[in-house]
Description:
Elements: E1 4-7, E2 12-15, E3 23-28, H1 39-57, E4 61-66, H2 73-82, H3 86-103, H4 119-131, E5 135-138, E6 141-144, H5 160-165, E7 181-186, E8 201-203, H6 205-217, E9 221-227, H7 231-246, E10 251-257, E11 260-262, E12 265-266, H8 277-280, H9 286-294, E13 302-303, H10 306-325, H11 334-352, H12 357-374, H13 379-388, H14 403-417, H15 421-435, E14 437-442, E15 445-450
Parallel strand pairs: 3-4, 3-9, 9-10, 11-13
Antiparallel strand pairs: 1-2, 5-6, 6-7, 7-8, 11-12, 14-15
Helix pairs in contact: 4-6, 4-7, 6-7, 9-10, 10-13, 11-12, 12-13, 14-15
Amino acid sequence: MSIYLYNTLTAKKEKFIPLNPSEVTFYTCGITSYDYCHVGHARVYVVFDCIRRHLAYRGYRVRYVQNFTDIDDKIIKRAAELGEFWESLTTRFISACLEDLQSLYVLPAESYPRATAYIGEMQSLIATLIQKGAAYVSEGDVYFSVAAFPEYGKLSKKILEDLISGSRVEVSDMKRNPLDFVLWKSAKPGEPFWESPWGKGRPGWHIECSAMVLAALGPSIDIHAGGQDLIFPHHENEICQSECATGHPFARYWLHNGFVIIRDEKMAKSAGNFFTIRDILQTYSGEVIRFFLLKTHYRSPLGFSLEGLDEAQQALSRLHHTRKLVVEWPDPEERHVTECVGFRTRFEESMDDDFNTAGAIGVLFDLNKYMHTHHVNAGGVLTELGRLLGLFGDVSIADTAPDAAIHMMEARKAAKHNRDYAEADRLRDAVLAQFGIVIEDVKDGYRWYIKKVTI
């Protein structure tokens, strides 16, 4: 069966046809490394990791690259605020980001290019644009001329005239057109800089990604991905400068995930309404966070709440409980094997249809119900399909409870077995009071989850 995906460039769902029948080139925009990653970042990297996994499952060799922006206005400002060298600041937060991604079971990229390692490539790209008349020098800065690219706005579907008259456009006497954007910034006193044909300075944000994509994956790639907020101006500007320089289409498919919403607003550092990944990891496992992020289709808005994480933890614990329980059940008979093949087919169809992880997770729970209804061990299928979503890693949901809580829950189980119901009730109440853990009795044992709370 073919894979279909929604292409932001064409604004429709299309059959996926890579440039190379056996290989997929896939680039995802990484963080600007001046702070810890928040849940909005987590959604980006979990979603595209899951898409990458499915492409690999379907037989493609996936060359997956994720960059790090390690020079930027925000980085310079934050380093000054902390009294820290900008190089050590970016190194520290890049390391923290990689740790967070590992906690979320995100597979390592083929490479993690850093912008400052590609200054030479950026300067060559800028020189090519100047030579072709698509860029110009103005008082030590270099700007891209949007007039040189008649298709400007084709990704974001924005109309050039509307953008020019809009209040969001930065106006400067140094620009020929208010929409022209900077490729090279002349250095201000005290700022980091590199020597260039246009004087001391540093690259603009947009040219960084173009140079890293071209260097790592080539003039044309299959998939370019990122958060919805990057469509304009970042990805729009990447397209025009890259295609003007190379004469080739930059990316065949553009994938963008929806926002994480909290209190009816987009989660963002600038709004101050964010939770860092490592904050959430203090209470929830990386697997629970990943499951929560995948329960909603990647292009839809995702409402974030601690209550939602609690619900995800409860749901995931049911699957883990089944995987432990079914080892004592009989292996599937032939009719059950046929049914399990049907569950696999449904799972694949969901993922082939624009990577519908919500539908795929629904299949996992349908399979879970089937196993309980027919008392059949199809745990191998359940585990395999779950792992295609990056679930069911080495750490189980139960292992995330404090040792003292686990000890008390096991003591309660023993008390119930001995018909000491008063002691069982006391332990149940104590676990809830001390650890916020609710115990739920099920056949052959119990399961637990964190008591629901709201932000």
